[in-house]
Fold this protein.
Amino acid sequence: MAVDATPSIADDAPGTATSGQSRFRRAGKRMLRNSPAMIALGYLVIVGLAAVLADAITPYDLAVATGAPLASPSGEHWLGTDSLGRDVFTRLVYAGQVSLRISVTVVALAVALAVPLGLVAGYRGGRVDYLMMRICDAFASFPALILMLAVAGILGPEPQNTIIALLVVMLPGLVRIVRGQAVAVRAETFIEASRSIGTPDWVIMGKRMLPSVASPVIVQATVLLGTAILAEAGLSYLGLGTQLPTPSWGNMLRESYDTALFSDPFLVVLPGAAIALTVLAFNTVGDGLRDAFGIANQGPKGRSQRRGITTVTRRKPATPAPALATDDLLRVEGLRVEFDSGTGPVTVLDELDLTIRPGEVLGLVGESGCGKSVTALAISRLLPSPPGRITAGRVVLDGTDLLGLSLTQMRRIRGRQVSMIFQDPMTSLDPAFSVAHHLIEAQRNHGRVDRATAKRRAVELLDLVGIPAATRRMQQFPHELSGGMRQRVMIATALANNPRLLIADEPTTALDVTVQAQILDLLRSLQKELQMAMLFVTHDLGVIADIADRVAVMYAGQVVEQATVHDVFASPRHPYTQGLLRAMPSSLTPPGERLATIPGTVPMAHAFPTGCRFAARCDYASDRCSQAPVPLVEPDGKTLVRCVLAEPAGPVPLADPVPAARPTEEAT
Amino acid sequence: MPGFIARRLLAMVPLALIVSFAVFMLMALVPGDPALAIAGQEATPEAIEQVRVQYHLDQPLVVQYLYWLRDAVSLDLGTSRATSQPVLDEIVARWPVTAGLVAASALVAVVIGVPIGVLAGIRPGHLADNSSRLLAGIGLAVPNFVGAIVLVVILGVQLRWLPILGYAKFTESPADWALHMVLPAFTLGSTLAAIMIRQLRAAMIDTLDSNYVRAAWARGGSPKRVIGQHALKNAAMPALTVFGFSIAAMIGGTVIIEQIFSLPGLGPFILSAIVGRDVPVVQAVTLMFVLTQLVVALLVDLAYGWLNPKVRVS
């Protein structure tokens, strides 16, 4: 879920382009912390050493009976003897040697063949790629095991034939993986850049692409080693692989199954366990490597997820809501939101106060990463927990503190009293359901409505949001609609139950400029028509001027200024607001003059300074700014502002006044 | 829809041709004189020559293949060189056993894998999730035949709860059939169950984090509706794709399982044919496996189209 102001833990972000060396070193460190993977690796090292040193560590001859048949484990025969009186431990170690030798050879060959083939297919594309992929498809349409049996059966049971049979089965999949990775890397700009300066193809493939392909190949090779062990054991079990008297885990299993199933099941279990443990170990190490390289995110581990509602853990019990003196619809008081990060909780929203009166539009504005969307989601308690958590404050809607509600209580508010529309209409409608389903569901979430009535209302809603041919659109699916249409459908679902408050989280940001204006017009006219209050989140001051009655300016997780649209545009108090206004293109900017910018960027949530958070970018900053947190004050009875220059009462000095921006008429 | 199915069935024809030709060529690599193999070691040169002509072995390979193809089109798949029985008869008798095993195993995989995978995905990190991950890890690591043998040792040999070997026809006694299918279907289905657990868990975690699920919560949806409808239907799509691939792999896995449990399916048939270089049998049974796999793939695609409106065929 895209939430801005998520604490960035840059060094843990998967897929960031860093040098190969440090990436491998970091993966190694992460691997060391993964105890299951390390245990599995330890087991594999022991098995590997035993196989290599088989002659030295085995006490008996492989093929000679050295004890009574089917003897139990003893000091002489650590794992007992088989039906012919041969030492089981000795046979197991030698069998491991055979199985591992074949598996390692197969995987080494597969990697050696698949990497160049996949790189060339992915890098060249076109006909070479097409041909190779069709060949892979042809192999894939064959039941792998049958293919392997056929090859092994026809070529005969020599080890090299087993290797060929396994290779035939494994190679296509590996080529496909390398090729997929190569295609992805090829699209990166650094490859394009290398090509454009005329770097030879083989250098690009060998030096630039190979490191990116390496980690998935290492992971896959590890898993394939397990698969090879399994396949070799299967072939040997069926009598098509390693032949007796040479032992392999597969044929030992077969032999004991045939001779000792009833008399000594332990003998059957031993080779079975050897196979299963080794495969499990390879898979575990493979999973560990995958996590260490950050290839597949397995999702949060070690803690359970609370679905559908943000967790509230207020340290101090909230004081009971005072009787509302005002006619406010929504009061947000002292809201604090924290995110769990690898290094501990990070506060991303702090001391956030907002008020919205019925029928009023409050614009929430600020740069990316200021916490605007987090605010919007926290109010409806839609921030996912973990990592998000509300740790202080109150969100009072009509006298009810939403932060005290259960999911069941909260869901009666959502979509009925408080509706939301989101930034990305392309992904906010469920691709698997029709428009009609979305609209009918929105109504049925809040009480029994019979299908016919719900359908009629759905058509009405589509008409309301200006979708032509509503009846036909009802049957369509999200992928058949344009972005603007989808946002209209989102609005229609949000309006289904005549909500008193609509939270619009950057509803036009992802749309074309012309469509933006249409959606904005629609929202404005609907808001007037339905007398609905609105919290409008945007980073575009022009849009604010267009639609809002009042504005709250956010910076680094705090509100720094709150006033009416007129006051904010006519006499901005906070240096940040002034900067934003100066950075806004305007018809009054003389032609040819450069647009002002605010130097620097919003600080990361884990690095918020104690004092004024804007000080580092502020022209007026002095020592006073960084000493202590700056409170939100009301110097003139009209504007709330968080700036040391605003206290005691008195206007913030303005070096060069901002041209008064036009209020409502102009379209964006 | 019927047009789509017809097109897909038609597309199987060239693939079946390629596969059968490939197998035919592969079998031609078998060292030794096939005529001698058929006629027997003690046959006179005249008898061998007669066999050679009778089986068109004196013709070029491509012509031999065309002879086979001509007969195959009229459903004559030749006679087994080992038993001299028509191959088609054997396949008709044995295919239902294998198909039944595949169906039973798929059922086991769905019944075990789907609920566990979904629950694990809803609450990652929870106790149920951690134990399911362990279970899936073991299910993937323990080879079918090892699992089979462990089950045989415990349930069949030690506890004597279930029959270890043999088969009863479904049409004669469904209960007996089911009893004989429990062990094979569990061993064959456990791998797929493990795959389903992993897939569904990952897919549920992804979809539950998606924007459309957040929007469904924002509309005031109940957990039943948001998780059970929106998240589950979307998570089912990738899981179904993998299910399709894995069923294909499972069809191959029947060979070993049928061998272990002495089920009279296609597995032991093709195994003995491979060892005995019985070309017509290998040829026909391989083709049968490939066709079964293609039909399963078609069914999976149809189900996928039902789930995913983007690929739904009009």
